[in-house]
């Protein structure tokens, strides 16, 4: 004793699509732009999914996998940090031996054209011109 108005077919394998297909099959006799109402007496099996919290062995397995993943990420981050510090130490040793005071003054006196984002401008709806400092 319910009325159902279908405005679209719905996604494939959904309840809306199944109802639409059944309605379309039964109402093919009416070829007008608006098809007539159809009485559907259907029995359908529905699979209803819901989330349940993990318990017991599933919970312990999930936590152990999560812990292993965090340990791997921490080990990888430590390895990257160690390699970066080694590279920085090597570069600082080379730069201290090669660059003298006159070289530093010479580098500071040169001007370089670099794009620097203007801190006073904020992104908005309209496109703004870029500024080069």
TrEMBL record:
Protein name: 13888_t:CDS:1
């Amino acid at each position: 004793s319910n009325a159902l108005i279908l405005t679209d077919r719905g996604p494939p394998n959904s309840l809306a699509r199944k109802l639409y297909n059944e309605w379309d099959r039964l109402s093919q006799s009416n070829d007008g732009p608006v098809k007539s109402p159809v009485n559907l007496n259907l029995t359908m099996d529905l699979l209803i999914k819901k989330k349940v919290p993990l318990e017991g062995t599933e919970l312990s397995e999930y936590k152990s996998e999560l812990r292993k993943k965090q340990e791997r990420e921490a080990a990888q981050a430590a390895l990257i940090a160690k390699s970066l510090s080694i590279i920085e130490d090597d570069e600082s040793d080379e730069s201290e031996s090669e660059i003298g005071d006159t070289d530093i003054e010479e580098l500071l006196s040169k001007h370089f054209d670099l794009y620097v984002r203007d801190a006073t401008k904020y992104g908005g709806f309209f496109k703004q011109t870029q500024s080069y400092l």
